[in-house]
Design brief:
Bound molecules: guanosine-5'-triphosphate, magnesium ion
Structural class: alpha+beta
Helix content: 25-40%
Number of strands: 36
CATH superfamily of the largest domain: P-loop containing nucleotide triphosphate hydrolases
Number of domains: 5
Strand order of the largest sheet: 18-17-23-14-15-22-19-20
Distance between the termini: 76 Å
Shape: globular
Number of helices: 17
CATH topology of the largest domain: Rossmann fold
CATH class of the largest domain: Alpha Beta
Largest sheet: 8 strands, antiparallel
Oligomer: single chain
Radius of gyration: 30 Å
CATH architecture of the largest domain: 3-Layer(aba) Sandwich
Strand content: 25-35%
């Protein structure tokens, strides 16, 4: 296998709404580049990037997959991503290791809800975007007028930098060619063929449109470039060579978002799309140096607030806390060029966990070169690793390579400890790449192992699945001891259950979804807790006074030690903190964890002989419970941010229904495929929303939700929940 230099690599994330045809288009590109002997199909599981058994069974991509096409001296790495809203966080994660987002749109519908979302993700990281309007072959794809209208809609959304660089040739014979608006050449295809076009004459019917579109393109490319503008006015056009260079630069700098046309299924336009990526997509070495976190350094003194900082640290010192706790340390910023001469560093963007081959880690070479068998350091965990066999992935198949250059995407099997989101590299040159943010799981289900044997296998199997899918969470309900599995929604959890069975022969039954409630306080309270016992010889004695105060949502628990003059000896203070944390985890109202409060340890007393860590832990629990009685405890519920897309005529019914679910509508927007409604709705009201949405919209609506924040449950609703919940057991006895 040839090894490619960074300048000969194009890393492309193929993103877009579900069923726009991403997986099929990649299959077409691979066939056109002769990477496969025939064109793969999603329907029969032969598409290279659709190898996961769940993906094949459900005919949709649920996690990122990689393929590559060797084309005219470059290697195009293609990451196939899910377009189904429940897995779109994968598409976001795919944007970190690439330099181009290839946004695939369905010619019938244009931009849809997920198209908007992936556009936003790409914009967040200034990723160059190339648009492909796909499925032009479809009988329901739009006419010439429709196509023009679609471009106008895209421009309304994303600005006039969205500009066609091709026109499709559609006539009585269907879609069978494209006009390249840069070179003004036509390419004609045999639909259903190998994706190679023959140069041909621009048909009369599109000649006028092509000329006008060429001029619009040239003008946009020249805009803001004085010497090109002058050339344009002087000559009436720009020589092809200058145009190509300027368009490449404009795409790299996000000044132009070009639009191409294709049919993945009928393989029309594939060779030209590969040509376009080869010529215009930026190579990894063309990107700005990567700014990453380096080694930890103490904070530099801030001018102006030096005094405050000094008194803070004094206070901390007198409290017996470490002054330079790791949180105080700042990470220095390291700039890395994507260059073989830099120290080697890799970032793991995906992990595949296979019961037979074990773990395969997909990574990007962020800088430097890596060779097979290299010893590297995992900087996130500070553990050594060995890159035993380097390879590149063609779907599920690993192709071994001796080395990989800066900017390339590779894979390695059997790393000991490293997981997705972690940075590895040459030990002496520490850097950390910031991982892509992941949403909180939106749905939690209780699951029940079918047999004793299944119960034993469950935790190890789920932990394997969690290695490759960061959106799966697994824990035990503290109240009922049931096993809980959280994920992005019902189809996600069902896929997890199915993988457990297929891969790990572990069978479970899915039970009703659960709402992860929490508890908090609404006012300050102070109380004392004493634990005293005299049993025969040695007694037990602990005594502390604490204050609880509400903190903003999301603060968790903050412990402050305000003890003065050794009222409680230092060695017992961690025991007090531990006692509070344990009690908080067990809940007060209904067994849900208590969060978002500050606890200050104010005072206490001890006994020379009878005091122990255990006594202080118990004292803290008593004090905590007393405080909770006084602090107006409240139940918190997760509130979801929901986006619903449906044809316009259903908007009224959808909003009415959301109102009845305690939803707050945040906004409405008319998109390509209908109306998008955004609302905040408590999770408890959304557990079976899929069925309702199907009923309201006759199956034409879709929705996406993400956990957004926690909010206090209104009293009447809380009363009902508390009435059915099992009250926690308070077994701490006082005195
Ligand atoms: N007519 C036509 N149908 C297509 C084309 N591309 C894909 N399809 C069909 O559309 C369906 C979805 O195609 P996929 O390639 O799985 O779409 P995807 O974008 O990967 O979908 P997700 O993985 O769910 O995001 C399949 O039934 C394809 O056969 C095309 O160019 N023309
Ligand atoms: Mg797909």
């Amino acid at each position: 296998m040839k090894v490619y230099a960074g300048s000969d690599i194009r890393n492309v994330a193929v993103v877009g709404h579900s069923h726009s045809g991403k997986t099929t288009l990649i299959a077409a590109l691979l066939y056109a580049a002769k990477m496969t002997p025939a064109q793969g199909r999603v329907e029969d599981g032969s598409a290279v990037t659709a190898y996961d058994e769940e993906d094949v069974a459900r005919r949709t991509t649920m996690s990122n997959a990689l393929a590559f096409a060797e084309w005219k001296g470059v290697k195009v790495n293609l990451i196939d991503t899910p377009g189904f809203h429940m897995f779109v966080h994968e598409a976001r994660a795919a944007m970190l290791p690439v330099e181009t987002a290839l946004i695939v749109l369905n010619a019938q519908t244009g931009a849809e809800a997920v198209t908007d979302r992936v556009w936003r993700y790409a914009a967040e990281v200034n990723l160059p975007r190339i648009l492909v309007i796909n499925q032009v072959d479809h009988p329901k794809a739009d006419s010439r007028i429709g196509r023009q209208h679609m471009i106008e809609l895209l421009q309304e959304k994303w600005g006039r930098q969205v500009v066609p660089v091709q026109l499709p040739i559609v006539d009585r014979d269907g879609f069978h060619g494209v006009v390249d608006l840069v070179t003004m050449k036509a390419f004609l295809y045999q639909p259903g063929g190998d994706g190679h076009g023959e140069p041909g004459k621009i048909p009369e019917a599109v000649a006028a449109d092509a000329r006008a579109a060429h001029e619009a393109l040239v003008e946009l490319v020249a805009e803001g470039k004085d010497e090109l503008m002058e050339e344009f006015f002087r000559e009436g056009t720009i020589p092809e060579q200058h145009l190509v260079a300027a368009l490449h630069e404009a795409i790299r700098e996000d000044r132009i978002f070009p639009v191409l046309y294709a049919s993945g299924l009928r393989n029309v336009g594939a060779d030209h799309l590969l040509d376009f990526l080869q010529v215009y997509a930026p190579s990894p070495v063309e990107r700005e140096p990567v700014a990453a976190g380096g080694i930890l350094v103490p904070p530099s003194p801030q001018p102006g607030n030096g005094e405050a900082a000094a008194s803070d640290s004094e206070a901390a010192a007198s409290n017996g806390e470490a002054v330079s706790a790791p949180e105080d340390m700042q990470q220095e910023i390291v700039m890395r060029r994507v260059d073989d001469a830099e120290p080697a560093a890799l970032y793991i963007y995906k992990t595949m966990s296979d019961p037979f081959t074990g773990r395969i880690s997909f990574f990007k070479v962020v800088s430097g070169m890596v060779r097979t068998d290299a010893a590297v350091q995992n900087f996130t965990r500070q553990e050594p690793e060995r890159l035993a066999h380097l390879s590149i992935m063609q779907g599920r198949k690993a192709v071994e390579v001796p080395e990989l250059h800066a900017g390339d995407l590779g894979a390695v099997a059997k790393l000991r400890v490293s997981l997705t989101g972690e940075t590895l590299g040459e030990k002496a040159h520490e850097i950390f790449i910031e991982p892509v943010p992941m949403p909180e799981p939106a749905m939690t289900y209780a699951i029940e192992p079918k047999s004793r044997a299944d119960e034993d296998k469950l935790a190890p199997a789920l932990h394997k699945l969690m290695e490759e899918d960061q959106m799966v969470r697994f824990f035990r309900d503290p109240q009922t001891s049931e096993f809980l599995v959280a994920g992005t929604g019902q189809p996600h959890i069902e896929a997890v259950v199915s993988k457990l069975k297929r891969r790990y022969h572990t069978e479970v039954t899915l039970k009703a979804p659960k709402v992860p409630y929490r508890e908090t306080i609404r006012s300050r309270a102070e109380a004392q807790g004493r634990h005293k016992k005299q049993t025969g010889g040695h007694g037990q004695f602990g005594d502390c006074r604490i204050r609880l105060e509400p903190l903003p949502r999301g603060s968790g628990i903050v412990f402050v030690n305000d003890i003065f003059g050794g009222a409680i000896p230092r060695q017992y203070i961690p025991a007090v903190e531990k006692g509070i944390h344990e009690s908080a985890a067990r809940g007060y109202l209904a067994g849900y964890p208590v969060v978002d409060f500050q606890v200050s340890l104010l005072d206490g007393s001890y006994h020379d002989v009878d005091s122990s860590e255990m006594s202080f832990k118990l004292a803290a629990r008593i004090a905590f419970r007393k405080c909770m009685e006084l602090a107006r405890p409240a139940l918190l519920e997760p509130v979801m941010h929901v986006e619903i897309e449906a044809p316009d005529e259903f908007a009224g019914a959808l909003i009415g229904d959301l109102n009845s679910r305690r939803g707050r509508v945040q906004g409405m927007e008319s998109g390509g495929a209908g109306t998008i409604v955004r609302a905040d709705v408590p999770m408890a009201e959304m557990l079976t929303y899929g069925t309702t949405l199907t009923a309201i919209t006759q199956g034409r609506g879709s929705f996406h939700m993400e956990m957004d924040h926690y909010d206090v449950v209104p009293q009447p609703v809380a009363d009902k929940i508390l009435a059915t919940a099992k009250a926690p057991v308070h077994d701490d006895a006082e005195d």
